[in-house]
Write a structure and sequence with these properties.
The chain is an alpha/beta fold. The protein is built from 15 helices and 15 strands.
Length: about 425
């Protein structure tokens, strides 16, 4: 399948593009790392990184997809909708789309499988390959191709010790020996944070094989657009029926059981009884929507708003009219909505089921937000109550969020990749 190039957009920075998707050897310096990135489909959070890699003179990168879902409309089972992300996902970097079996399948091990990825890596023409995840057959074919072609494999995965501990013992009995075998053959691990590192350490992975690679959102994109609507936030609030003086608590995500959006309803009900001027906005869609609507009626909540699914270009507006971000999830490895909310200058409340807290991670209890025991609605209510009733603390934590998020961007991802390449390839020349 031929690569596709989408039209440019005026608010994006100049990009080092190659519309024909042809090799750039003549324009590259002599010393260069030729790498392949194996990932299932264009993901809005990773495409800006691929653009950064395309602009880096030390790297010649080709992204290997086996589907264009996301850049093209697809059915998302979590949202329960057909969606297409409304930002350019296929320009500014080199990519190929490999033929795939079961291209429409998104939820099983065999979905979007491309045997050609093994053949591509087995040629040995790359200095390294970055493989995203291990939960699909396609990734294992990439591992196989890399080992045959003696291509160092760098692994990116967001699984952490919190998620692993939730697995049944009999699943872990099968899963852990397979992962241990895989990890012994991985050249470098791109580590997203505290709990992700601990997960690899539980398999005996040595620290020198781990390189910091934060899950990142486009911080500048969200910060600039959220700031631009501050002067008009009362207008945008009015469209949702939210009073200017209300403190808005925001949830963004799929309305599914593991995200526990209902906990915010119960916290809001008890805060309403105390007379606090708050409003709750749930931005998303999913199987729990009808249940949430019923609960809103049962609790007679007037200050809760279901705003529906919001595409990427709409999200900064929702963040911009809000004052607090809350995520009550029971399991959430690295929810990137946290990055977005922090870039937009919001204090964060998360349950301890999310993988974004810990030493040196995104959410630092008492600094830029609060971490509470998952399912403890009373503790959630207390955290919200403190930020609602202490505006000075709320502003202080909002500023701290913006400070912290500067250390979790695509620049840090690029640095981690370069460090791993230097270690594993010895700085070889092309």
């Amino acid at each position: 399948m031929a690569p596709v190039t989408m039209p440019g957009r005026s608010d994006l920075p100049p990009l080092s593009t190659n519309p024909e998707n042809t090799p750039r050897q003549n324009s590259l310096p002599r010393r260069v790392y030729k790498i392949a990135v194996v990932i299932s489909h264009p993901i809005q959070y990773f495409v800006p990184l691929f653009r950064r890699l395309a602009e880096e003179p030390k790297i010649d990168c080709t992204v290997l997809y086996n589907s264009l879902m996301g850049a093209q409309k697809y059915a998302d089972p979590g949202f329960g909708l057909e969606i297409k992300w409304d930002i350019p996902l296929l320009e500014g970097y080199h990519y190929r789309v490999l033929p795939a079996y079961f291209p429409r399948s998104t939820s099983n091990f065999f979905g979007r499988t491309s045997p050609q990825v093994a053949a591509e890596l087995s040629k040995g023409t790359y200095d390294a390959a970055i493989v995203f995840g291990w939960g699909r057959l396609n990734s294992w074919l990439a591992f196989l191709g890399g080992w045959v072609g003696r291509v160092p494999v760098m692994l990116y995965g967001d699984t952490n010790v919190l998620y692993e501990s939730s697995k049944s013992w009999y699943l872990q009995l099968v899963r852990r020996p397979l992962l241990a075998c895989l990890f012994r053959r991985v050249a470098a691990f791109l580590v997203t944070g505290t709990f992700n590192r601990r997960f690899y350490e539980s398999f005996g992975v040595r620290p020198e094989k781990c390189f910091f690679f934060p899950q990142a959102a486009d911080n500048d994109y969200f910060a600039c657009r959220a700031a631009s609507i501050k002067s008009r936030r009362d207008k945008f609030r009015a469209r949702l029926g939210i009073a200017p003086e209300a403190v808005v608590v925001l949830f963004v995500g799929k309305l599914i059981p593991r995200k526990r959006p209902q906990d915010l309803l119960y916290a809001a009900a008890s805060l309403r009884e105390r007379g606090h001027p708050i409003a709750v906005v749930l931005a998303g869609e999913g199987e729990l929507r009808s249940h949430l609507e019923s609960e809103i009626k049962r609790l007679n909540l007037k200050n809760v708003h279901l705003s529906g699914f919001k595409n990427q270009s709409e999200l900064p507006k929702i963040y911009g009219i809000s004052d607090i971000f809350a995520l009550p999830s029971s399991i959430d490895n690295k929810p990137l909505v946290i990055n977005e909310a922090m870039a937009c200058g919001l204090p964060i409340i998360v349950s301890d089921g999310t993988g974004v807290w810990g030493d040196g991670d995104l959410v630092r209890d008492g600094e830029n937000g609060f971490v509470y025991p998952c399912g403890d609605v009373g503790a959630l209510r207390q955290a919200i109550n403190r930020l609602v009733t202490e505006p000075g603390l709320r502003q202080q934590m909002a500023a701290r969020s913006q400070e912290i998020i500067t250390g979790f961007g695509y620049g840090q991802c690029l640095e981690g990749i370069l460090q791993a390449l230097e270690r594993e390839t010895g700085g070889r020349e092309a």
